[in-house]
Amino acid sequence: MNRREFIATGALAAAAPGAETSGQTVSAPAADFRALFPRLERERYLAAAAGTPLSTFTGDALRAYEDYWRFGPGDGRIDTIRADFAATRSGLADLLGAKPNEIAFVHCTKEGEQIVLDGLPSIRDGGNVVTNDLHFGGSLGNLLGLQRAGVDVRIVANRDWRTDIDAMREAIDDSTALVSVALVSNINGNIEPIRELAEIAHAHGAYVYADVIQAAGIVPLDVRAMGIDFAAGNGYKWLFGPHGAGYLYVAEEHQGSALQDRVFPGGAWANYAPWVETPDGALDPVARSEPLDDSRRYEPGHVGYLNYAALNAGLRFVAQVGVEHLLAHSVSLNTRLLDNVDASRSECITPDPATSPIVTFLLRDTDGLGERFAAANLALGNGPAPRERGPGSPLRQRPRLRVSPAIYNTADDMDALAAAMNG
What we know:
Strand order of the largest sheet: 2-8-7-6-5-3-4
Mean pLDDT: 90
Number of strands: 14
CATH superfamily of the domain at 85-316: Type I PLP-dependent aspartate aminotransferase-like (Major domain)
Order of helices and strands: HHHEHHEHHEHEHEHEHEEEEHHEEHEEH
Helix content: 25-40%
Shape: globular
CATH architecture of the domain at 85-316: 3-Layer(aba) Sandwich
């Protein structure tokens, strides 16, 4: 099947701007999906957990928005863009098991989490925050900053690289305001026992936040059934979108009540001359406008619209291929790798590779590994948007290798990786 024939199956058509999905999933060999990702002509890219390469269908969506901004709203361009944004919001809702009015657009995952941390009165009133060391490192760094500022933050250590549910239960008490975790850990693919955690948290009157960036689009989700109150993610990993397409889920019963809109409260109006001809004596001199009555009340104003137009294409692709199929493919490749890798050299620290798209290894011997990766054209750590970072940990961490194949990867990719890891 060549690229034109693959397009005819409907997968790319469903990903196109403004297109409707048929409700039928598409199954095809990974080699056929590879044609949609030009970067794979140059390397074996096995780092979806860092970010997926830009696809041809995402590029088409980017150009459609660029045409709208370049040429204006005429010739139906504005209708296409409006439909894209509405479809992006509803597509994210469908993926999470939520409603469109529970989805806000934010710049990144951490911003979504910060909105929750800032908006819960129970934290400001002295409530504690419970997390664990398999949460995203950037979130832990932020929580440690809150801890230095006086917030009671409790970080529970893992047990054998999986969530220690007993220790989490012990840390959560009647003063807990929020339990904040990564649903699928970026460290090692650990999947949180989220339903059990939510039951524990809710029994103490606490709320649950889940970072779902490593879950959405690759692991089946139902935030309601899982007991998740708030969640956030971004589009550039398993959703085949770009950076800057973050989203925040807020259960509708918490909007404007349990979670206040303190960070982005809307606009304000001057209630005195010369702004108004007759001031309203019932209002303050500067009156706040009423916020929207859905999740958009948490949005930071203008977001990266271009990124959401592209994310819509990624969401359509995920819907057309099917989350269950995407996960099964990744798991099958990880299983093949585990069967062939030398465990004495590379110890798997993923608790349950049969359910996670990510497998991580502790490496006992890294001599020559980089050279072997380069010779085999393997890419495992460089995402699509590298950036300058500050100094790393003052402690020497044990060397780890994270592997995260996606729908475009093949058995040959995994065999090449196993050979390079085995030396």
